[in-house]
Amino acid sequence: MTGFARSRFVATFPAGLMFLVCLTLSVWSSAFAATTFVSADVQNRDQPAVKAVEHMSQLLSTRSNGELTVQVKTNGELGTEAEVLDKLRKGTLDMGRLSLAAFADSVPAAKLMSLPYLFRSRDHLWTVLHGDFGTRLEGEIQKSGVVVIMYLDGGARNFYAKKPIRNRDDFKGLKFRVESSAIYKDLITALGGTPVAVPYDKVSDALREGDIDGAESNVISYVSGDHYKQARYLSLDEHSMVPDVLVMSKKAWAKLTPAQQELLKMAGLESEDFMAKLWQDKERDALAFARKNGVTVLNKSQLSMTGIESFAVRQYSRYVQDPKDLETVLQIVSTK
Predict the structure, then answer these.
(1) In whole angstroms, what is the distance from residue 77 CA to residue 75 CA?
(2) Coil, strand, or helix at residue 304?
(3) pLDDT tens-digit readout, 209-255
């Protein structure tokens, strides 16, 4: 299911309901002071995820007659993803755009989503995310202390390094920066490399100074973070397709009336489609830029994935102990 196909989910909110919500907010506008929610992001302002949240803010402001807006603080100004999540749970920050991987150690369904090589394509991912499993995921995230506003296409994550990564043996002896997830730390270790904890905004420095030999991320971040200048080999293995998620503190959510909450959710759903189109265009441009600037791009057909994927799949049994969750994973894999 593409980003555009996901628009059918917006249609689950009838036009009449949209009119009623907007009318209600208009009537109440004199009773409520304008509210600006602050949202944190570790990415820069040119990133599609940031633009999608700003797009949502514009929709929200228009439809609430200026009563509700969102101000995005970028470049990690309000902290790392872990720090942002902690602030959200404490209620000292309103909103934050995080990788779903940030919830992997506290939300069981998010841990399942983080399993490597789980999704065949973006269509596969979004079909699962907007199905029964997605309902479970949203419920568990809310139990963990925050409210889901929307999911955002985070693209496929790929390995890149100072030397070509074509097969499992190429990981041996290399230091890799991975997300703060036990699953991927263990995966790098199993492949023969050494996982290294480095904040996202320090990856470029760590590559330049030799603290790490490679990392993994989506193509857009690889280029925008200047990682391509040091790690000149990009392997498009698509080992992970974990989406981003915009979440809100329960404290901020409770300040909204039911009608305002509905309006915020609708603005989020429409911004998912906006983000999908923006991401695909930006990703295509980033890949072309990398090639133009001397990066060696290794496509899937040039990779010997069998050894890597078999090692990754072995992680499933380690992290999926509950028979019901194992059944869920098998259902995800078999989803058409």
Answers:
(1) 5
(2) coil
(3) 999 999 999 999 899 999 999 999 999 999 889 899 999 999 999 99
For 181, the token pair is 């997830």
Q: Give CA–CA dist 311/85, Å, rounded.
A: 31
**Cβ neighbours of residue 134 under 8 Å, at least 6 residues apart?**
128
Instruction: Report the C-alpha gap between 263 and 113 in whole angstroms.
Output: 28
Residue closest to 146 by CA, chosen among 77, 105, 85, 104 = 85
User: What does 161-224 look like in DSSP terms, one character per residue?
Assistant: ESS---SGGGGTT-EEE--S-HHHHHHHHHTT-EEE---GGGHHHHHHHTS-SEEEE-HHHHHH
Tokens of 34: 């304008």
For residue 12, give the 3-state DSSP assignment. Answer: coil
Q: Residues 36-82: pLDDT tens digits?
A: 999 999 988 888 899 999 999 999 999 999 999 999 999 999 999 99
Both tokens of 40, joined, read: 């944190």
- Please, where are the H alpha helices in the chain? 7-10, 15-28, 48-63, 81-90, 108-113, 122-129, 132-143, 182-190, 203-209, 219-224, 250-253, 258-292, 305-319, 323-334
Nearest to 235 by CA among 313, 308, 126: 308
Which residue, among 26, 63, 38, has the nearest Cα to 266 in the 3D structure?
63
SS3 117: coil
